[in-house]
Structures are given as C-alpha cells and as structure tokens.
Amino acid sequence: RVIGARTDSPTLRIRPRPDDNSAGIGRIGVEVYGGVLLNSWLDRDLGVAGQVVMRDGSSFLIHSSGAVARIPQLAIHLDRDVNDQGLVLDRHSHLQPIWCTLPGNGRFVDWIGDQLNTNADSIASWSLSLFDISNACLLGADNSFLSSGRIDNLLSCWAAASALSASTPQEDTALIVALFDHEEVGSDTLNGASGPLLNRLIEMIGESCGSSKSDLYGSLGRSLLISTDNAHGVHPNYPERHDANNAPYLNRGVAVKINESQ
Questions:
Q1: Using CA atoms, how far apart are residues 234 and 241, in angstroms rounded to an integer?
Q2: Where are the beta strands (DSSP E) in 59-205?
Q3: pTM
Q4: In this structure, which of 66, 120, 182, 227 has its CB flanked by the most CB atoms within 10 Å?
Q5: Per residue in 188-238, pLDDT tens?
C-alpha cells in the first residue's frame, strides 16, 4: 500500500551568478521554477532558504530569519492603465528582487557566507529559493480557511506521513510513503516520480522477504497506490471555471480526481 505525493512547489530559484545592479539598486537574479502565478510574488517580504555546498564537499541548510528581498510592483502613477488592461510581467526583467543599496551593491555569496559564519571563498554552489516569510494562519470569522504558502503539495506530504505514523504494522503488507521532488518540472529526474527509486525499493523489500519475481508481480497486482495532490476548489468569484455537476466545494470532504487522459 503506497501513498505518493510531491515535495516541491512553484517558486523563484536563485541563479548561480545572481548579482545584478539597476538604477543603483542591487538585485538578485532568479529563475522561475514550475507553474508560478507571477503576480502573486509582487510586494511580498521574501526570505531565502535552501542548501549550500562547500568546496570540501560538505553541505548546509540555511533559512533566513527575516525578509531579505522584495519584488516591488510599479506604482500606479507610472502604469495608470494596469487596472483596465491587466498586468503583464516579463519574468526576465520584472521579477528580479531588490535586496540592497550598498556601495557596489555587495555580493550575494558574501551574504551566504555571513549566514554560515564562513568565508565566501569556501562556497562552491547552492540550491536556494525565495519564500514568503508570512506565517500560515487560520482565516475567517469561523476559522474555516487555512491560509499558507506551499499547501500544494506539502499538505499531502503531511497527510501521508501522519497516516504512516498512525498505522498499525501488518505482517503481509508493506506500508510505503513515497515523496518525490521535481513534479513541477515534469518528474523526469532521478529524484522524480518517473525515476527508478520506488520500483527499486519495492524490489528490495521483496528480496528481503525471500519473494521470487512471480511473487513480487502477484503482490503488485494486489497492491494499491494513491497519488495524492490538491484539488482546485470552486472560486466563488469564478464559478463558471468548474463543471457544475463535478465541482469540488471547500470543506466538503476528500476529492477523488479522475482524468480520462490517464
């Protein structure tokens, strides 16, 4: 019995050479990762989190304690048609976060070094993302809404891990939670759901139990895999975007999603 989910969410990833300057303001070069709703990143206080790899091969996780950057929207006085014609953003020029006004604008790698209390020259590379530093919260007069970033799809990861920890071990059943990265970009990586990891794990479990190939195939035929993700609930301002006879309403229970394109 397998529950599958994904760990990644749409975000802005910091480039390997991020230092940039425009109008005397330091900017961080970023690249869009996944299906980002671009305008949702404007005018938010953004932190930095991820992994840093050192030249000696060691690695560290960092998570800024406060806001580091911001992507300011153009003032309406300079874009008076925006409410009538809509906001159009160029991801290569309009989404670069501002982060300092230091003379020369400083180097991003020096900031990383300060976070790790190490010399910036000892840093080889990083995998860092921006994130909205606002905390998750319950919202509404009845607290019936959960407001948070990265619900899609860390919510499913939490549900799967909670189910596994609350389950009772069964002698004839392997209970597996498979949490994969890179769904936002196609899942076709070593760490993605299309990679070999889950198949190899199941084969190793079978071998450890003394199962033959035919036993394994028979077990797979009797198995169940639930692919867990979020369903887009009906938006009260855009009800026409859903099929009225199959519309997922908020707080009405679990949604079972079927796609005839498989």
A1: 8
A2: 59-63, 98-100, 123-132, 137-139, 145-147, 176-180
A3: 0.89
A4: 182
A5: 998 899 999 999 999 999 999 899 999 999 999 999 999 999 999 999 999
